[in-house]
Amino acid sequence: MSEFKELKQQAYEGNMRLPELDLVLFTFGNASAVDREREVFAIKPSGVPYAELKPEDIVIVDFDANVVEGNMRPSSDTETHAVLYKHWEHIGGIVHTHSTYGTAWAQTQQDIPIMGTTHADHLTQDIPCAPPMSDEMIKGDYEEQTGYQIINDLEDRGFSYEEVEMILVGNHAPFTWGKTIKKAVYNSAVLEEVAKMAYLSLQIRPDAPRLKDTLIQKHWERKHGDGAYYGQEND
Amino acid sequence: MSEFKELKQQAYEGNMRLPELDLVLFTFGNASAVDREREVFAIKPSGVPYAELKPEDIVIVDFDANVVEGNMRPSSDTETHAVLYKHWEHIGGIVHTHSTYGTAWAQTQQDIPIMGTTHADHLTQDIPCAPPMSDEMIKGDYEEQTGYQIINDLEDRGFSYEEVEMILVGNHAPFTWGKTIKKAVYNSAVLEEVAKMAYLSLQIRPDAPRLKDTLIQKHWERKHGDGAYYGQEND
Amino acid sequence: MSEFKELKQQAYEGNMRLPELDLVLFTFGNASAVDREREVFAIKPSGVPYAELKPEDIVIVDFDANVVEGNMRPSSDTETHAVLYKHWEHIGGIVHTHSTYGTAWAQTQQDIPIMGTTHADHLTQDIPCAPPMSDEMIKGDYEEQTGYQIINDLEDRGFSYEEVEMILVGNHAPFTWGKTIKKAVYNSAVLEEVAKMAYLSLQIRPDAPRLKDTLIQKHWERKHGDGAYYGQEND
Amino acid sequence: MSEFKELKQQAYEGNMRLPELDLVLFTFGNASAVDREREVFAIKPSGVPYAELKPEDIVIVDFDANVVEGNMRPSSDTETHAVLYKHWEHIGGIVHTHSTYGTAWAQTQQDIPIMGTTHADHLTQDIPCAPPMSDEMIKGDYEEQTGYQIINDLEDRGFSYEEVEMILVGNHAPFTWGKTIKKAVYNSAVLEEVAKMAYLSLQIRPDAPRLKDTLIQKHWERKHGDGAYYGQEND
């Protein structure tokens, strides 16, 4: 029996939540879960429809994207995951989707502005849209460079990956992460909903203002601050 | 056995209708039901996913938001519910959601204009959007102040809470109420549908006029007036 | 046993299709089926949720809207149905909904322009939007007058109710009809889909042209003309 | 037993996927699968609702659209399929739908611009919208001419049908094809999703730019180029 059985199961469950949450069409997405001790992660095999995916199909790869265990080719986006796991020590899961509203924003090359408390409950910044990658990055090791594009964009903005757990890659689509794969999946659904709400608000009122700072701070603090009182004690 | 078993069941059922009606994602909402005799209400515990919610998880609190019975922390919005129950003697249930179209309107800080009979079947006014709260209110007891923001906005407009059973809190999201929790849930779904229709009408025709008074009165009266003839005698 | 058992069953099935086709929220709609020989029709009782509706709840009324059989009050829109059945001898069923896109167009007081073959497969005209009713009509016998507003608008435009089987009542919502209740229900779903497509096309290209006459005629003729070749021989 | 049993089954399964993928309302669509050796294809019968469709209802026709086997009339669009099979030797399946966003774009007579990698994963060109057909073509053998309109438009643009597997017919709706009926169905869903994303992006930012060439080439190559590394070896 595989020593990675539990890790594969986690990755399998995370991946299966994506179609349940209407975040992927066909194979347009992938989720992974990391094992920090063994320095490997479990990721969806490339091009396999969710309806046919089985826990044993999940591929185990190391942080250089070499396959450690598995009979199938891992997701074509595996190197992006590998780069993020290598550089960001405190994340446990990563999700990539082409969810409709998030991708539509990515195609505009614009950040999703923070317009309400639904957004502020999850992050205090606009959801960043990294610029489309340079031709050099695209023609080089594209998927690895996608990881660096994400890391560099957060750094340029002075954002912490532990606070801002989501990004759009310009002209491409959303990437999200979190302490667990479950949280990364959750963040993908939050991004999609917030993207839809911001779209609608700006259609109704093109000059609708950004959320004011006191509300941003209040909603963030009550869920994530030192005196957070949202959820249960042991959450 | 809890003396509040029936009240908890009511609150449980009201809460469970919210995901069924597509009004909440994850834990973004809460519903409560009141027992006027005992001066307590039953409300969803904070941060518990609907798929895992059980009737016995429902928390009983008094009108000062003190927990009377329950092992879990009540919703972080509990004080808002408490203020409304304390001030509005004739309501039996309250619902708060971040439903997509309602929240999108709240993010614009605009009332939802009355544009058709679907709206007039339920209220004769635009659905009010209370302005975003002042910094003092936000930094104070935020959730309690949210309740006062709602009460004050209705009073400033001269609206009765028994006729206008729904409001948007600016940059936040919808709150609805009613004689029963069932009616409050119903009102949340009505608000969402009316919000979507008004959005679409204004996209098709930005200068579409407000509904004329005779139609507003007619549709309201046939459902709610002295000679109402909608529904069954015993409704 | 009721002599109207089969008629009630037909009306029941037609009504139950409305939530299945996502055309109604709660009780916002009603369908009826006529028996021309007995000069009665079967219609949904007022205010009864679809989930609770049973075939025996259906109410039988005559063309003056008097209840012939049934323990419940018929739909508040019964008089509108009665007027249409009385004046239009060749219709067998009527449906009224507040479907989202159809109602959004009604709220703009604009016809839905014919922009593609999906529309032309069903009618050769824009879907008419009757103007909002006059104050006299609204304050009079409102539901009966709604029927006359529909009849008069078709007549003013020179449209035959046997070709144009759908209309919007301005600021209100869609009404559809057909040779059978099944066809009337079908028409309600067609209207909603065509309303959504026209909305989207005009958002993408505000000056998108109306469908040209040759295509209108071709698509209408192949389904409804003398040499129609769509469907099966016995359709 | 029919010698076409397997072919009919393939066509049946392809057709049944269309409502599952929310690409058709009622009977607004049809799919076919070809047998190149026998020079026949299997297609949906005309006007039969998907809920009632059975494998044995599928009609077998030759490349001149003559019925070879079957008790029902084939789809009214059969001649369009026949023309495409006759001229394009390497396609195995064809799908026609009136899917909402694809049809909305067709009604604007505009190509769907390539705006992101979701699009580039499937084709390197804008999704072409053939102009509405000339009056002569419409009044002639309309369905056959629809096939020529599609073929001619691709040729005029210098597109290969083996690379560009989808088109809009102006004021009408989408047609897609592929090496198999399964791929043709897949392409219909891709077209609908890409059409929705492009619509949303242009609503958010009307001057959003077209995807740059390096990204177009990269995404196309990794799925379809000589060194493609998407999917499994045996895909």
From TrEMBL, chains A, B, C, D:
* Assigned keywords, A-Z: Metal-binding, Zinc
Cross-referenced Gene3D superfamilies = Class II aldolase/adducin N-terminal domain
Tell me its cofactors. Answer: Zn(2+)
**What are the Class II aldolase/adducin N-terminal domain coordinates in residue numbering?**
9-199
Q: Which reaction does it catalyse?
A: L-ribulose 5-phosphate = D-xylulose 5-phosphate
Q: Which residues cross the membrane?
A: none
InterPro entries from the xrefs? Answer: Aldolase_class_II_sugar_metab, Aldolase_II/adducin_N, Aldolase_II/adducin_N_sf
Q: Any idea of its EC number?
A: 5.1.3.4
Q: What class of enzyme is it?
A: isomerase
Family, according to the entry, reads as follows: Belongs to the aldolase class II family. AraD/FucA subfamily.
State the protein's name: L-ribulose-5-phosphate 4-epimerase
